[in-house]
Amino acid sequence: MSAQSTTSIPDPTTRYRRTGMHGVNTEMMSWLFMRVSGVLLVILVFGHLFVNLWLGEGVKGIDFAFVGGKWASPFWQVWDLLMLWLGLIHGGNGVRTIISDYARKPTVRMVLKSLLLFAVVVTIVLGTLVIFTFDPCPVGADPSLLPSLCEG
């Protein structure tokens, strides 16, 4: 008879002590962020669609003047900013997870994650600038190029 090897499986309710790891578990925080930001994004996006499409004139009512009027309110600036930031960070975190899962070589993984970080940061910065510096009626512009809401 051969000697039988036994494997002990710990009780699933037992808490494990991580050896050699100190501080915050970044993957757990990432997982938690994805859940919280996902719920917030659902609320923000459906609120955005409800106000823009259901309460308004639908797609045909969304034009330059509509956006200009909406972004005149700090409430809608912050609403759209939250959608932008949460959407980009949520999506970037998801792509980071995919890169970690499928990029086998550490160098390739580092390059891809660096490019992803660069793209997310640049898009967040540019989007934030657009939201807070948008002026549908710039001073000194040719009046023939301005939308009708700037007349007067």
Characterise the protein shown here.
There is one protein chain. The mean pLDDT is about 85. The chain has a single domain (about 25-135), classed as Up-down Bundle (3 helical TM bundles of succinate and fumarate reductases), CATH 1.20.1300.10. Helix 3 runs antiparallel to helix 4 (about 105-135). By secondary structure, the protein is mostly helical. It has 4 helices and no strands. Helices cover about 60% and strands about 0% of the residues. Pfam families: Sdh_cyt (PF01127). Keywords: Electron transport, Heme, Iron, Membrane, Metal-binding, Transmembrane, Transmembrane helix, Transport, Tricarboxylic acid cycle. Membrane-anchoring subunit of succinate dehydrogenase (SDH).
Q: Please give the CATH architecture.
A: Up-down Bundle
**What's the domain count?**
1
Tally of alpha and pi helices: 4
CATH class identity: Mainly Alpha
Low-confidence stretches: none
**Major sheet characteristics:** none
CATH fold descriptor: 3 helical TM bundles of succinate and fumarate reductases
Number of strands: 0
**What percentage of amino acids are in beta strands?**
under 5%
Structural class: mainly alpha
CATH homologous superfamily identity = Fumarate reductase/succinate dehydrogenase, transmembrane subunit
The span between the termini is 99 Å
The run of helices and strands is: HHHH
Membrane topology: Multi-pass membrane protein
Main location: membrane
Cofactor: heme
Function: Membrane-anchoring subunit of succinate dehydrogenase (SDH).
